[in-house]
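User: Structure with FE2/S2 (inorganic) cluster, tokens only please.
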Amino acid sequence: MSSPASPPRGLARNAANYGDREFALYLRRSFAASMGYSRTMLEKPVVGIADTASDYNNCHRTVPELIEAVKRGVLAAGGLPLAFPTVSLCEPSLSPCSMHYRNLMALDTEAMLSAQPMDAAVLVGGCDKTVPAQLMAAASADIPAALLVVGPMLAQRFEGERLSACTDCRRWWARYRAGEVDAARIGEIEGKLATTAGTCGVMGTASTMACIAATLGFMPLMAASAPAVHADRLRFAEEAGALAMRLIARPVRPSELITPESVENALRVLLALGGSTNALVHLAAIAGRVGIPVDLRRLDRLSEETPVLVDLKPTGEGYMEDFHAAGGLVALLRELKDLLHLGCKDLYGDTLEQRIAEGPAFVDRAIIHARDTPVSPVGGLISLFGSLAPDGAILKRSAATPGLFETEARCVVFDGLEDLARRIDDEALDVTPEDILVLKGAGPLSPAGMPEAGHLPIPRKLARQGVKDMVRMSDCRMSGTAFGTVVLHIAPEAAAGGPLALVRTGDRVRLSVRERRLDLLVPEEELARRRAAWSPPPKPRRGWDRLVHEQVLQAPQGADLAFLRPDGC
Ligand code: FES
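Assistant:
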């Protein structure tokens, strides 16, 4: 342990305060020794490893094996690895939704990073909300921290096609809803969609966030996409342990990596990937932890200059294993080079320019397109503003139907998820393919907690007629694996009293992608009448729900809790 003159390190960090520091350390050593460590080991630098293994988290099935490999890297470099559990969030396993608990995981992880004795950390995450929560925590705790993701699952070959979670889940389920396949067939498909360990095998939220974390510098570029079951994944784990040890000798803090320039690079990558809409909310939350705003209007300008280059589901055809084999993030960044801030550094102290130059030179153009033959000449996401979304909304145009980009129509409104579930498949529902479906009461402040429900199902009676897409809009999110003409994250949300709260079935709404507008075509006097009659949802009585209700911010601020941001608002 440290001498009295040197700053505390290893197990001597963050001693409990009994009024007698030496006694606190004596006590800590004696308890730590009860785990069988020698005094020599207890005096080594400590790398904390955030362990998100959970029987509720299928995506993280390989975490125990990865942690063994991280420990190997730490031990070989002369450190003491100490794993500790944190909240773990698996996308389909939580109610009302995983997003409601992302900030809880961030708070838990930050507290453990700050309170326990460690000189550096390795954060082992992967499933959608885990990487954002860990980066938010790292940014706030601001201790040197490397990220290790579990990696994507492999696609399954099945009857001449490939299947993977979860774009194919939605595609097959839509066919089932339309009556194209029967219950036996959809049951058979259920067992083919997620057949290995790892995160969803398409460019959904988990994969998009892995690419963003690597772009920000928290892990090697190729570590974003190596499959979960590939031996390289274990080598990246070992390297994460070794990297954490190097960070002890030469610290690089998260706040040095998350800068306006690196956040802009991350936005470019998000756009070029045709990545998940959720990543925008998460990036706003991560950047917000160090006081950097993510401006939706700036996103829109970047989107006009940044082509979609990656042909992966849900916007294209390939799977994550194809992206990795095609050259991965290195190949993508090489294509984007002139649009990036190349001086941004990573945890190794290397600039983005060096990282690109030192990566593999191979590229498979079937998956990662050249700039002059893009998948789409403009970026995957755009922002919208207007009388229905004064603080903004977003649309993933790369996954939408261009024929619906300019739509003015009557809307059919669902007041919350229960109302949606009760009426969407009602044969008596007054709805046509030309209508706009609107869901309100599902934003971050609502009891629903901003779930991935924005991809409203096509009403069954229209699905049976062959309707594949309609304009849909809401204050909630959409799975990164979903597709359709879906306007999301409308802010302010209905539960906060935004104009969305006032929309009624029969109102006319106008979406214009060309003008980046989203407008409610109802006279102001009528809206004033409705506003006077509106009342907010009741305050939860206690616990986490109550804290969220009192503190949660809107989507453009990343739906973070206000008191966790540096400005407290
Ligand atoms: Fe975990 Fe998709 S459910 S990444």
